[in-house]
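Researcher: Here's my situation. A collaborator sent me these components and asked whether they could plausibly form a single complex. I don't have experimental data yet, so a predicted model of the whole assembly would be a useful starting point for our discussion.
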Amino acid sequence: MENKEELDQLRVEKKRLESLLDFGHKVSSRILNLDELLKMIMGETREILDAERCTVFLRDFDSDTLYSKIADGMGSREIRIPLDKGIAGAVARSGEVINIKDAYADERFDTGTDSKTGYVTKTILTCPMKDKMGESIGVFQVLNKRSGVFDTEDERILLLLARQAADAVENAFLYDEQRKMFESFIDTLSDTLDKRDYITAGHSRRVTFFAIKTGEAMKLMKHDIELLKYSSWMHDMGKVGVREHILSKAGKLTDEEFEQIKSHTVFTREILGKIYFKREFRQIPDIAASHHENIDGSGYPRGLKGMAIPFFARIIAVCDVFDALTSKRHYRNPMPILGVLNILKNDVGVKFDPVCVEAFFKINLLDIVRGINLEKVENFVIVSDDEAILQKYILEDFYRVLSSSEFTPAQSMVVESFARYYGK
Amino acid sequence: MENKEELDQLRVEKKRLESLLDFGHKVSSRILNLDELLKMIMGETREILDAERCTVFLRDFDSDTLYSKIADGMGSREIRIPLDKGIAGAVARSGEVINIKDAYADERFDTGTDSKTGYVTKTILTCPMKDKMGESIGVFQVLNKRSGVFDTEDERILLLLARQAADAVENAFLYDEQRKMFESFIDTLSDTLDKRDYITAGHSRRVTFFAIKTGEAMKLMKHDIELLKYSSWMHDMGKVGVREHILSKAGKLTDEEFEQIKSHTVFTREILGKIYFKREFRQIPDIAASHHENIDGSGYPRGLKGMAIPFFARIIAVCDVFDALTSKRHYRNPMPILGVLNILKNDVGVKFDPVCVEAFFKINLLDIVRGINLEKVENFVIVSDDEAILQKYILEDFYRVLSSSEFTPAQSMVVESFARYYGK
């Protein structure tokens, strides 16, 4: 008989341990989107603890609040609680578990949410979620155990779950921070360039915009678009190594000055070569430094030919020339758009890879207009009528229209719409 | 009787599940030093699987090898195996478990290590360690189960352990990558500055060196030294926003030009304000932008006074002036060292915080010499006799020596030693 009891007990414990292990596996093997991760964590926790509801609050260290984006029964509204208020706040501050057997009899319980949602909270179990330093990075809360009140075993399990969840959340944050840091640094590098080379300010961002659109027209995968994006964003970085008076010289450059300009591609490789890129981004310096190589071997700095030029550099080359010719310089206006497109077409197989030019001409005309005006944030609006007209064309169609000797009324309209946003 | 058997079985299983959960907790709650983490993982795994030895191989994606720094019985020698060789390589490539009951009867087994170390391998269990994308990032290997051969249950457990370890290792890598990326970006930013402002190239790194030494003299904690380090490294970043001809002007600046120079502190705040720093480093822009504030309120850009100036900015201020005066400019030689030190002392309470100057004068003279010559990598050597003499003095003592009217022979020696590395 005693055996029977111990057996039952052991079976229950074994099952519980297995769900805990399983939980650990599930939260850790997820690709890390924080919202999805939290949703899954909450569902599993509800199940394991036989509770009606579960909420995971994360701590916002900047504003010292706890917030939850996805709470059971709250739709997608964000809940935000100051750290010095309520049960969750108390748990985050003290790092201790709070187990309430009768919510309405407890003065710490705030009935506000219940009266708003119509839910009746009976029992509450709340525990902290601690990071590796032992600091509370959030709070785990379950409500209304279906089979009675939460006991000390439930407390132990919730703590275990919270610990595993904390790991996964920390990891997701880490990925997120890495991405934010990475992008902000690139942005800062390109800003330092703009600060100095004010004539071409915004060039890197516009080229990046066009490169992404070209990549999308080629149906590149998300990861490749990222690599392309960062490479274009930094392609002119080496210009910080070229003397200011040469960069901003309006007239014809001497041979020696032109050699100095050319050296920016070498500097780009040198500077970017010092950055620690994670594996997926190791090619960035090579791509970025090859955007002046021509497909026929007449480019610089290495005179690479054809397939020897990194593919993404060949995309950037097209976007780079397009932006240079369509942008205003202090000594000249943007070239008429037909002239620009003719140059791109004429240089296919000479400077440019046919595949890249073809993809570039597949970009939607509305995106072209957006790209050209990317940095004009103030007072720049594309009116919706023009938007509707522009998005009917890809660049190739628009090019055919411009090249024809006469316009139909519909063609005139797109030419006029485009003109309203070009060369201003 | 049946009950008895099931009971025993359940007890064993429960114990095993608990050790697995415990393992998960241990590997995930460690502060992340990869070497320590791996050591702990190997010890626990050996224990849980009752094996004589355990090795964790990590995959080096650059060279396509597996390596292990800490392997049982190998001392601290690194083992490196090409991915296309041996049992570990096969496991990493195929992602499948290999369980060998008799090593010497298996042709895949390489007896080389055994014959080198004298160890006799009998049984081998090897499984892959996969990341969240399902890619093998390493290999887990246990040797010689004490109680016989490894069975399928052992395989299952090793896979579970490997999965938990993979999480922890990935996390450690992530931290490591974040740090590397961060430092390389800062280095790149400061390099872009050096490329343009070649007259003061190396200034940021030298100031950083002196700031760290000052911080150490103050016995600051490791984390604070880091904050100080990154802030000094970037203190002059805003100079990218100042026109080149003003930065490099040799003669006296006009008022307007000086105003432009001053604006570099504003630009520093602006540029660094755009970088996403993690919480511990949020103060960097504020510290970096305040290094020209004077303690008496006569500094710029904000004319902050005393304690209103961030403490670390007050440290940087001292190091900044010290480096400016001890460095060669194209229009002047370094100022004689006594003159430099007199200026620092005279400006205590005017420009400088007394606490910071006092700490600066506690820097060891050998470190001062090293800092001054930090960027002279080629052909720069401090001979060991001088080293021995210099390190007997802190800067304060050296200052007293220099200020005295007559030198003892020992004092003459340090003055001469110092002179050999100053102003070259």
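Model: Some features of this prediction you could bring to your collaborator: The longest strand of chain B covers residues 51-60. The mean pLDDT of chain B is 88.
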